[in-house]
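Researcher: I've been going back and forth with a colleague about how Accessory Sec system glycosyltransferase Asp1 might be arranged in three dimensions. Neither of us has a model we trust, so I'd like an independent prediction. The organism is Levilactobacillus lanxiensis, in case that matters for your notes. Sequence below.
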Amino acid sequence: MFYFINEYLLQKNSSVEHTAMNRVKLFNHYKRPAKIVTKTYDRLIHQTIKTFDVADNEIVNMFDFFQEATDLTTEKVLHTDDLNLPLASEVMVGANFSQVLEGDTPTSNVGFIPGTVGRVFYQEFFDGQGNVIETNLWDWRGFKSATQYFGQNGKLILQRYYTPTGKTTLEQFFVPDTNGNPLTSRMILKDYRGRGDLFFQNIDDLFVFFLAELSNQDSETTTFISDRPGTGVQPLLALNDSSHKYVYIPINHAVDPNDPIHGKLDGFLEPAFEHFNHFDGFITPTEQQAEHLRQRYAQARVTAIPAVTTVPLSKEREATVAQIQRRPHNLLYVGRIAPDKQIEQLLRMFALVKNQIKDATFDLYGYGAPEFMQQMAGVVAELKLNDSVSFKDYDPRMADHYDQYQLLVNMSYADGAPMAMQEAMDHAIPVISYPFNYGPSAFIKDGVNGCLIDRGNSLAIADKIRELFTDDTKLADLSQAAYDSAHQNWTQRKVWNRWQRLLQA
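Model: Here is an independent structure prediction for Accessory Sec system glycosyltransferase Asp1. You can compare it with whatever you and your colleague have in mind.
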């Protein structure tokens, strides 16, 4: 079995999680059983993955594993009426939760899963003074997953986890940290598989044990690939068994992206390369980054494998959408909305485009911190671009939107090979970008399938966009070349062959 180690799968994911989801589908397509491993307790994960077309048998969550809830075949839709409330109770139904009262005294609240009509998510119980003393937590699939217990100060002191049949399987104890917030002090697996109670200091220690259990249950040699270095590197270093261990590097390995050979290494990657002999190899999304790492660590085994794969048109969609059929003068950005992505520079650059291309529009897809999003909305208002610029938020179905755009732009200072560039090219969208580490120089042939512009020269980017928006022939040529590049270099078969060569070596 192949396990891809991640912290979580959320409703809004980064390229780290999207890379893992792409890979698990690729491996299972070629009949190599694979699962995404997640560490975080998440009662909604089996709802979330449906949005990304990931099957229940393509993930294994640590808490699901110990709660014996990895292979549930049915879901039970639970509403307030199903909770066997006392007959004397009165229920006042609200939009997000129902209040349960006995006479005039509130005894509990029943919260609903967001986006559902009354589907139970939690039930919190009050003491006589209205303080929450206990909360039952319900899994999306309809079973009581855990109970939280609170002390007199209202702080969490114990969380008890259950199997779908109601057996207590795990207990997590908390003490206050230096700020008074709950800090895990002990975790106990209750009578684990006839071995009695097993004690762990924290979730990290339990996670190491979990990975070992995954490895032990395989009849063949297990392969682990750590996708998120902060989650997977240390547990794999602690795992001293025969399993194969790889580290995927989704980020710039150097703190200073402009000094990849000698600059200080990222803190999460540092222990992996200090003990590189413990790992079977390291994987990067671009050859450029792989070569930089080989220069730093000549004895480490480093391989480049693309994070995005393409499939033939007949299997994916009926035909590419010609540039002339797309919304004219429609510009696209996909990625985090954050300062390091130079979003303000993007907006000011677009204002230069808009000065000459009056019907130009610019859509930005991605999530960001609310405060920064508000700042960028202020920049849009300052530039009088409210009718032309739209922040579209994160969209898990981004693939459904690419075909309406003519160009994708990226002015980031650095990145770890943005997947959106490859996805855009797959949809015949040329990319205009600074040549930062890593990605643009690997994906773009300047003037052939996109454009590379000297860093910091936003005026040149604006000029190039204006040029292409007013030259249908040149834009169509770049569009076709972008599509051809994607379907020559990142086909499922070619990417799979790279994985085969790595894993069979």
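Researcher: What would you highlight for our discussion?
Model: I'd start with this: The chain has three domains: 2-71+204-304, 80-202, 314-489. After that, consider the following. The mean pLDDT is 95.
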